[in-house]
Specification:
The complex is a heterodimer of chains A (about 400) and B (about 70). Chain A has five helices and 19 strands. Chain A is mostly beta strands and about 400 residues long. Chain A folds into two domains: about 45 residues, no CATH class; about 350 residues, Porin, CATH 2.40.160. Chain A is globular, with a radius of gyration of 28 Å. Chain A starts with a helix and ends with a strand. By secondary structure, chain B is mostly helical. Chain B is about 40% helix and about 0% strand. Classes of the chains: A mainly beta (about 400), B mainly alpha (about 70). At the A-B interface, β1, β3, β4, β7 and β8 of A face α1 and α2 of B.
Chain lengths: ~400, ~70
């Protein structure tokens, strides 16, 4: 558009001279009114209209196999099936309101069919929930640009599924330093869960609650024109009913009993990330996380991703992740009837896990010289991952994403 | 305890490197989407949820660890 406007002006020099003479002869107070191109036309009028900047959708399918001692879909004293299929569509809309406010509306949905709760005779005597659960979240984040280097965000969300309600609310502040070479951020999120309480036979016993408070501080630093790193520390304090209430534990001298968990958990995690551009138009990304909590779990997670750009619109990537953890101090596959704390959940056992995967990503720009289409670019991504654990759990994951940037 | 010592060392290392600023016009490589420290937001969510609900060691990634529909 600016190119066309400039051409039009070249073709009408007389009008341009007339405008100049008018400007010179007019008083200072009348100058703005006489301008053929007022400030609003050149700089854009101050506009608080909501403008959609991007719409992105992603669908992920999980196909899980394996066994765990918390599941009753198997022998009474042995591990039961953890077979599950999960379809997880997500949608994200990012919009600006004026030049200081950015809204992000994000809606993830889960459709879960799981063998473990299905094996219970009547998992929910009221609604039949947990046999086939659809759950969804609405999450809204508003980011206000206080000045050129400071952002302030508010986040609120609601999660709904048949036996479960959850609300979360958070605040985040971000500050850029040293010409954006360093970015420091801090956030706090409060979470409240309200859900049905079951026994391991499927009987429902009213409701129970859980709260969580999380705080994170983060520093991102550009080291060189090809290297950027980040360090992140997070702490979470959970209190209330920690389990899902229907997981079971094999008990010596009896068949199965309920989990007995502490009513509080304090978790610490320290994360380091680095991204390095490679001379052959590729990138190497590294990730390490150290985790510890007061249930006795100590974990290390490491991940490497390597990317290779094949053209200006297309790149491919591969990843490998390794995770190792100790189990909780009260994990058992055969509990004493008198144990004060007991859990047989395979997720809380000592384990190693591996993830191997790859993806193809394409970004097609739709800008043309001299004109801009309403859609600025199209984004496509497809990926596959295989997740497997040393304590009998495997998962195939297929994911694809499509997005429009306006 | 190892955690604070490791954190302090990491912060000192970052602070030491902050002296050499990289100007805006030398950040073309850093602007490539391949160089993002984090995955795309929707991809990051589905991966984080997978690990949070299959491993008992969530947290530290700027999201609530535990609660929600992930339990524990």
């Amino acid at each position: 558009m600016p190119v066309e406007r400039r051409k039009g002006r070249v073709g009408a020099p007389a009008a341009e001279i007339l405008v100049a003479l008018t400007l010179l002869s007019s008083s200072a107070g009348a100058q703005d009114a006489a301008l053929p191109f007022p400030d609003e036309h050149i700089l854009d009028a101050h506009d608080d209209t909501l403008r959609i900047r991007s719409v992105t959708t992603r669908v992920t399918a999980f196909d899980q196999y394996g066994h765990g001692y918390q599941s009753q879909a198997g022998p009474v004293r042995g591990p039961g099936s953890e077979r599950a299929t999960i379809l997880e569509p997500q949608a994200e809309v990012v919009a600006t309101q004026g030049d200081r406010l950015v809204h992000r509306l994000w809606i993830p949905v889960d459709v879960v069919t799981a063998a473990s709760p299905n094996s219970i005779a009547s998992p929910d005597v009221v609604s039949g929930a947990s046999r086939h659960v659809e759950g969804g979240t609405i999450d809204w984040t508003a980011t206000y640009k206080v000045d050129a280097v400071t952002d302030f965000s508010m986040r609120n969300g609601l999660h709904l599924e048949e036996p479960f309600r959850s609300w979360h609310s958070g605040l985040m502040a971000t500050r850029s330093l040293a010409d954006d070479n360093t970015v420091v951020s801090a956030d706090v999120i409060e979470l409240f869960d309200w859900f049905d309480r079951f026994d391991i036979h499927g009987g429902r016993h009213g409701h129970t609650t859980r709260t969580g408070t999380s705080g994170t501080v983060s520093v991102t630093q550009i080291l060189t024109p090809t290297t950027v790193v980040n360090v992140n520390y997070g702490v979470t304090v959970l209190s209330g009913t920690m389990g899902n209430t229907w997981n079971s534990v094999p008990v010596a001298g009896a068949s199965r009993g309920a989990e007995r968990l502490p009513d509080e958990r304090v978790r610490h995690a320290l994360v380091a990330r680095a991204s390095q551009f490679l001379p052959w138009n590729g990138a190497l990304r590294g990730y390490y996380r150290f985790y510890t909590d007061d249930w006795g779990i100590v974990a290390h997670s490491m991940e490497a991703q390597i990317m290779q750009r094949l053209s200006s619109v297309l790149y491919v990537g591969g990843l490998y992740r390794f995770h190792t953890q100790t189990g909780t101090t009260f994990f058992t596959t055969r509990a004493s009837p008198t144990a004060l704390l007991r859990v047989a959940d395979s997720d809380l056992a000592p384990l190693d896990s591996h993830t191997i995967g790859g993806k193809v990503v394409a970004d097609f720009p739709l800008m043309r010289q001299g004109q801009s289409w309403q859609i600025e670019s199209l984004h496509f991504e497809v990926g596959y991952e295989r997740y497997f654990r040393t304590n009998d759990l495997q998962m195939n994951i297929v994911t694809w994403e499509a997005g429009f940037h306006f | 305890m190892r955690l604070p010592a490791f954190g302090l060392a990491a912060c000192l290392a970052l602070a030491a490197t902050a002296c050499a600023a990289v100007s805006q016009n030398r950040r073309a490589y850093l602007a490539d989407p391949m160089m993002n420290l984090n995955d795309e937001p929707l991809d990051a969510y589905r991966r984080q949820k997978l690990y949070d609900t299959r491993e008992g060691a969530a947290g530290g990634d700027g999201a609530a660890a535990g609660g929600g529909c992930g339990c524990q």
